[in-house]
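From the shared-data thread, chain only:
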Amino acid sequence: MSAQDTPTGNGATPTGPSFTVEKLYIKDLSFEAPGTPQVFNEEGQPQLQMNLNQQVQRLSDEAFEVVLGVTLTCTIGEKTAYLAEVQQAGVFGLSGFDEITLEVMLGTHCPNTLYPYARQTVSDLITAGGFPPFLLQPINFEALYAESVRQRAAQAQVQGDGLAGAETAGNA
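Structure, as tokens:
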């Protein structure tokens, strides 16, 4: 019997949406400390800038690769102390979801699964680079996803208004 054929407690085969983590891995990793060893003697408050990005690739009907990119840049004054980049990836099995829910799962649940691994890797890189430990704060991927949906809707409305205006001008 496969996991899909395993009966539930009531004797029925499970149906409905399914989410599985098939594989987690580091797809790309980089650490640069261009100003070492002089940067260790720099005085001043370190400034940190973090950038996040996400890529989704459909591998099959029910399998998706999601890559969460985290880039952390630390500067002291005008000098870059370090740059840590991690692309934490995973292959996720998602089945039984409607298109909207599937998009939400890929935009929120998958990055929520990947982020703790990326966060630990960034922390380990920084420490191994000779810098004080740094722990990235938790991220609310649901709020980020909601904001991206809002921005896409606003952009679509602006583009739609532009097209409507162009059509009106063309018909005059």
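The chain has one domain: 16-160.
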